[in-house]
Amino acid sequence: MFGLLFPERTYPMDPTSLTQIDPTHWILDLSPFPSPPLHQVCIFLLSPSSLPPNQALSLYFQPSPTHNPSFLFCGALTPDRPSAVLTLPWPTDGETEKSNLGAKIGVCVEDLTIVPPIKDEGEGRRGERMALKVGESLFNYMTSFCGADGGGNIVVPADILDRWFRKFQERARKDPNYLKGFDL
């Protein structure tokens, strides 16, 4: 029904690599995987039609059975979304993970109505890339007007942001493909 792998760390594994709890639940103990900890997992349906109607294949992560015994939702697959690269939510409360010891991944088939909203990580990354490109455009524009004050500081005209933004808007209005150039 599904397969998974850890990018740059393992070959694809099928459900037989996991411990099957019942017909719709599987657990993978990450302890055998060498350090450093795994941060991403790629999960995919072997055939989108293998998932029953109105069902999702959900992936959960348990960083530590002692420090954090609950399984955290990472994402889900549907016939319309047959694969995903999901981030494993290690704790960020000062406890830096040093190994995969005790961590577990849970995979289950569950009713689509109880699955939390599925976020498309690609959309977030797309927005981040676009923001970086817009910032780079601003930086390049500002540096073309730079002067130095002798103390190692860069000096730009006070209205530089307004001028850049007006130019940015005008160019976007004239060329419908201009903004598409910021999306890599």
From TrEMBL:
Domain of life: Eukaryota
GO biological-process terms attached to the record: protein import into nucleus
Domain Hikeshi-like N-terminal stretches: 16-90
GO cellular component: cytosol; nucleus
Pfam families per UniProt: Hikeshi-like_C, Hikeshi-like_N
Residue intervals of the Hikeshi-like C-terminal domain: 129-180
MF annotations from Gene Ontology: nuclear import signal receptor activity
Similarity section: Belongs to the OPI10 family.
Name of the protein described by the UniProt record: Hikeshi-like domain-containing protein
